[in-house]
């Protein structure tokens, strides 16, 4: 099967050149004109994806060849784009930056190649003109088989600067300058230790968004961008497989409570899709504001986020903390990632030294480091140390870590969920906690890498509903 899908990949020459802002404004402008735009984000990042989802008014799917098989990408894109007019894929870091020095593995270039998607290169043009053209020429010649079709210059000083850039590009690489976006006096989004604030906390809107969209319309050749998007060839898809349910016809859905608010918002949409296909009804609730779990829920999913930023409010919600601790002690199936793991600990200690009580299900304190040397970031191999809620013993899955906090003590061999290692199999370490009804870890997983995890989670919730 194939899908005629206009699409563009918005890549950068490096991190920090403005590709998230450009992607956001392009999506928001097209949506304002009545287009149904499906956003995607290359790599494991939740934060940029949350803003693209807000711009589009629909989930932003991550495309990551470490977290999921490359064959799964087309299925995800086809499923997400069933009712879309166009897809916008935002890259990560620079166009060619990925997991390896000698290949495009894990890079935006790899995604563009696998999905046969035209690439728009965003560069920071501040204080350069012809030199910017040299950079573009290098990107063009580095992988000539890639469909690099145009350039967007960010932080352009004015019309004269834009003219120099346009002429230098035309006379060197032949690349068209599709937009010359002006320098801004302030960043569109605030940041903190993990990057941009997520859209659940700081959505772009109001007069600020209107001003940025006006600048974008004035500086961008939108019709030429759309013409380039339509040049994308038909996309081979696995759409039929994507739609196949994993449950028996007529089987009643199981309600899974999904923690979702400012403190917990890190979820991969493909994981949520697989849970629904396995028979789950996902019921959002707020650990900050709700005083009890939604009625009829037979499982609990605690995603990542920033519980350390809301530790006082989470601690103050004693009624919910007490109910969740009692339900988990009684056997309620629960999967927790990163921030969810922190919430399950007996305390969270913030960077300023305050310690706040949490659920106490895991006998550890989660401590937020006060400096960047304690950052744990990167892809991981994870081998299941025992049978757990999601995984059979001995199965190896792939995940990603990104956190500044740590536990006051590592899991014991009897407690550990995983043996973690780096992608090359080195630097092994026990991590996470696995019990009969609980799997909690700093590791972020996409269930697309092991779809059976969704089926196991829903099956466990179904069993608990029958005996609870």
TrEMBL record:
Domain CobB/CobQ-like glutamine amidotransferase: from-to ranges: 256-449
Catalytic activity of the protein: cob(II)yrinate + 2 L-glutamine + 2 ATP + 2 H2O = cob(II)yrinate a,c diamide + 2 L-glutamate + 2 ADP + 2 phosphate + 2 H(+)
GO biological process: cobalamin biosynthetic process
Cited PANTHER family: COBYRINATE A,C-DIAMIDE SYNTHASE (PTHR43873:SF1)
Job of this protein: Catalyzes the ATP-dependent amidation of the two carboxylate groups at positions a and c of cobyrinate, using either L-glutamine or ammonia as the nitrogen source.
Additional remark text: The a and c carboxylates of cobyrinate are activated for nucleophilic attack via formation of a phosphorylated intermediate by ATP. CbiA catalyzes first the amidation of the c-carboxylate, and then that of the a-carboxylate.
Record-given protein name: Cobyrinate a,c-diamide synthase
Organism of origin: Thermogemmatispora aurantia
Gene: cbiA
């Amino acid at each position: 099967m194939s899908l005629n899908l206009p699409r563009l990949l918005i890549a950068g020459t490096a991190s920090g050149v403005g590709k998230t802002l450009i992607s956001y404004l392009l999506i928001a402008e097209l949506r304002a004109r009545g287009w149904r735009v499906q956003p995607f984000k290359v790599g494991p990042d939740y934060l940029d994806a949350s803003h693209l989802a807000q711009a589009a008014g629909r989930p932003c799917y991550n495309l990551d060849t470490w977290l999921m098989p490359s064959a799964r990408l087309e299925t995800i894109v086809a499923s997400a784009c069933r009712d879309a007019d166009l897809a916008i894929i935002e890259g990560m870091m620079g166009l060619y930056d990925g997991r390896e020095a000698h290949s495009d593995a894990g890079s935006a270039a790899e995604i563009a190649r696998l999905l046969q998607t035209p690439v728009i290169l965003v560069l920071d043009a501040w204080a350069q003109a012809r030199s910017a053209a040299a950079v573009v020429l290098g990107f063009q010649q580095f992988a000539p088989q890639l469909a690099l079709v145009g350039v967007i210059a960010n932080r352009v000083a004015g019309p004269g600067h834009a003219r120099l850039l346009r002429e230098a590009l035309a006379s060197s690489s032949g690349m068209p300058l599709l937009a010359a976006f002006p320098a801004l006096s302030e960043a569109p989004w605030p940041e903190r230790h993990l990057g941009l604030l997520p859209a659940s906390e700081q959505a772009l809107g109001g007069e600020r968004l209107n001003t940025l969209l006006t600048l974008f319309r004035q500086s961008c050749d939108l019709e030429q961008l759309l013409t380039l998007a339509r040049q994308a060839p038909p996309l081979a898809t696995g759409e039929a497989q994507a739609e196949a349910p994993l449950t028996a016809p007529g089987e009643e859905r199981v309600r899974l409570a999904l923690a979702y608010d400012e403190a917990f918002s890190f979820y991969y949409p493909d994981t949520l899709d697989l849970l629904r296909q396995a028979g789950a009804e996902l019921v959002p609730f707020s650990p900050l504001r709700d005083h009890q779990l939604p009625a009829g829920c037979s499982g609990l999913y605690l995603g990542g986020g920033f519980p350390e930023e809301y530790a006082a409010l989470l601690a103050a919600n004693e009624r919910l903390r007490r109910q969740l601790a009692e339900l988990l002690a009684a056997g309620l199936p629960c999967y927790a990632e990163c921030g969810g793991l922190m919430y399950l600990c007996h305390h969270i200690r913030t960077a300023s030294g305050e310690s706040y009580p949490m659920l106490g299900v895991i006998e550890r304190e989660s401590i937020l480091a006060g400096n960047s040397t304690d950052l744990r970031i990167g892809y991981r191999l994870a081998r299941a140390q025992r049978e757990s809620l999601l995984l059979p013993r001995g199965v190896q899955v792939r995940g990603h870590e990104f956190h500044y906090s740590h536990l006051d003590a590592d899991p014991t061999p009897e407690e550990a969920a995983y043996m973690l290692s780096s992608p090359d199999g080195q630097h092994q370490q026990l991590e996470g906690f696995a019990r009969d009804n609980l799997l909690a870890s700093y590791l972020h997983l996409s269930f697309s890498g092991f779809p059976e995890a969704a089926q196991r989670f829903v099956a466990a919730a179904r069993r608990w509903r029958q005996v609870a």
